[in-house]
Amino acid sequence: MSELVLDNVTKVFDDGGEDIVAVDEVSVDIADGEFLVLVGPSGCGKSTTLRMIAGLETVSRGEIRLDGQVINGRPPRERDIAMVFQSYALYPHMTVRQNMSFGLEESTEKSDDEIESLVTETGEMLGISPLLDRKPGELSGGQQQRVALGRAIVRDPKVFLMDEPLSNLDAKLRSQMRTELQRLQEDLDVTTVYVTHDQTEAMTMGDRIAILNDGVLQQVATPLEAYHQPANLFVAGFIGEPSMNFFETELQGDRLVAENFDYPLSQETREAVGDSTHVTLGVRPEDIELLDSGSASGDHDFETVVDVVEPMGNENNVYLSFESGGDADFVATITGMRSMEGGQPAVARFPESAIHLFDTDSGHALK
Ligand code: ATP
């Protein structure tokens, strides 16, 4: 069992007399064997959180517990945690084999032979057996990345911590390594905390994702929950590409009145809005239906004009405006070979089943 618990973990940096709260009362339980992705924009406190778990940074307030034991004060090497860095942090003058086994002699009770066979086995698992006698400088980025992973794996730790480990790889290799890493983590069944600013990486890799903003945890959920039921405006805008479209509206009776349209609500949705009067309506680009101009048939269909079309291969991002000649007000994603072009009128449908509603003032999700 390796359950990792962050209990109101806070980090305050002293920046020349001024307090910077980098991590603000973050609480999350990471189950044994779970792959948790910590995601958020630059500066939100991801690395600081990971470094506190690793013991590379002190905890200002709160507790970090591993298997029920508080580890706040324990030095890094006594935490049974292995960290993989973005920079790989390999020793350039050592071979791959030496990089993987370095320090193991002192930190485990294993004999040299046992360590040797562990390194060989791990090398096979990672497909780097032919490279074991090379030095890091003679390896590609992807191979170095595997060595860095191998070094973490041979330690057989209770927890893996990974800080943007794939960000130095090109797009193709990155997506290949994502799948590999995921499979590896599943096979090894080691509790893992993985930091990234890339929401695609978070969505595709994590059992659950923890979304941070300004040091504050916004939501901890499975990727699908975060996508379908974002807890607030921040999560809604952060998860999904292109981002969710937002329209500020005011509730009048059972209608949401936006600058360019009125959106009547069913009784059920109206009830979900409750007492909120300033309501932000969100709709994902992929949930918008585009119909031929003149075919508006309901209260949730709006006449628009295509501004620009961004071809993405098998789908197109269509930027639309409520007024002819105006700047784009929102974006819709359409699949298939349907062709649309700038200046063309179209009807945009925002199906009620797909819309998200938020209290504009608090940001909290209403529906
Ligand atoms: P990135 O994705 O850019 O690496 P991050 O989410 O990992 O960002 P952190 O590196 O954890 O963010 O930083 C969180 C906040 O704490 C930032 O505002 C940063 O400037 C601040 N910070 C980090 N380390 C220190 C430090 N040693 N002293 C003062 N402030 C710091």
TrEMBL record:
Domain ABC transporter: from-to ranges: 4-239
Domain of life: Archaea
Compartments reported by the entry: Cell membrane
Keyword Transmembrane among UniProt keywords: no
Catalytic reactions on record: D-xylose(out) + ATP + H2O = D-xylose(in) + ADP + phosphate + H(+); L-arabinose(out) + ATP + H2O = L-arabinose(in) + ADP + phosphate + H(+)
GO cellular component assignments: ATP-binding cassette (ABC) transporter complex, substrate-binding subunit-containing
Protein EC: 7.5.2.13
Molecular function in Gene Ontology: ABC-type transporter activity; ATP binding; ATP hydrolysis activity
CDD domains: ABC_MalK_N (cd03301)
Family per similarity comment: Belongs to the ABC transporter superfamily. Carbohydrate uptake transporter-1 (CUT1) (TC 3.A.1.1) family.
Subunit comment: The complex is composed of two ATP-binding proteins (XacJ and XacK), two transmembrane proteins (XacH and XacI) and a solute-binding protein (XacG).
UniProt cross-references to NCBIfam families, sorted A to Z: PRK11650.1 (NF008653)
Name assigned to this protein: ABC-type D-xylose/L-arabinose transporter
Taxonomic placement: Archaea, Methanobacteriati, Methanobacteriota, Stenosarchaea group, Halobacteria
